[in-house]
Amino acid sequence: MNKTQVMQSASRIIESRSSNQGSGQDLLGRIVTHYGHQLDVETLEGPRAGSVQRCHKRANLPPLVAGDLILWKPDPSGTGVVISLCDRENVFGRHSPDGTFKPLASNLNCVLIVFAAAPEASANLIDKYLVAIENLGLEAFLILNKVDLLSGSRDQSLQRILQIYNELGYPVFEVSAKSGEGISLLERKLSGQTTVLVGQSGVGKSSLINCLGSSVLAKVGNLSEKKLQGTHTTTTTRLYHLREFDLIDSPGVREFGLSSIKKHEVLRGFRELHSLASDCKFRDCGHGNEPGCAVRTGISTGKVSQERFDSYQNILSNLD
Known about the structure:
By secondary structure, this protein is α/β, with parallel strands linked by helices. It folds into three domains: 3-85, CATH 2.40.50.140; 91-249, Rossmann fold (3-Layer(aba) Sandwich), CATH 3.40.50.300; 263-317, Probable gtpase engc, domain 3 (Ribonucleotide Reductase Protein R1, domain 1), CATH 1.10.40. It is 29% helix and 23% strand. It has nine helices and 13 strands. The strands form three sheets. A six-stranded mixed sheet has the order 10-9-8-11-13-12, sandwiched between helices. It has a five-stranded mixed β-barrel with strand order 1-2-3-5-4. Helix 2 (123-136) packs across helix 6 and helix 2 packs across helix 9 (306-317). The model is unreliable at 220-234 (pLDDT under 50).
């Protein structure tokens, strides 16, 4: 939700609560950070508007995430208690190995997928994010960070990644959190939006937030010299009000679980495969050796990259 949408939702919630004779002590807020059972809540109404209050939540509530609109009230201890969760426009998250869905952020307009030359970019991880994003109906932006580290002759695998996603129509931004290259263009594209920043550890998400925010907002870690894998500097999700937009940071990952997603949802996440699959001869085509498979024809004619099809098959093979 962009800032206008947040305030419109807030107004509707306030009106509904008033007509239902809700408690005068209940205040509308937005989760900006969560620390296990405690949360930081930004108040959206009344004399407290704009202030942040540390709260805990009632035990009967589901897990809350940055971006959630909630109702809270002060308690005698000087903190607050979250008493209810308002309806979500959407919720972005991942599945744990046991199939449990773990929400990360809610009420979004788009998702920023950050990758870099070091650590080595994983196209399969990018594709897993895209499956989740496409199924939510959100826009995905791909951010190549640390372009200041790239030499004139770019790594072929990285160049291939950029080519594939550009041809699929995904906006790809090449930026440097260190030099500021490409940052102003990214800010203009995200103006007024609420987004979440995702990607593997070490790709420079915290440095990117600092660059976008013009101040040291997030702690920055160093790459492990041993394996060029990032250290996990972000341990909680946090919502930042940046110059042009709202951004939710999330902990870096090396894997993004999709264990409980359905096969047709995986297909929907690969937009070029999804558009061709309706032309297959058989409705239940597995896109293997079946006759009349439009996806296989698409691979042979170059409409579908072999890399993306292999990634699709990899995700399917790891479903429960």
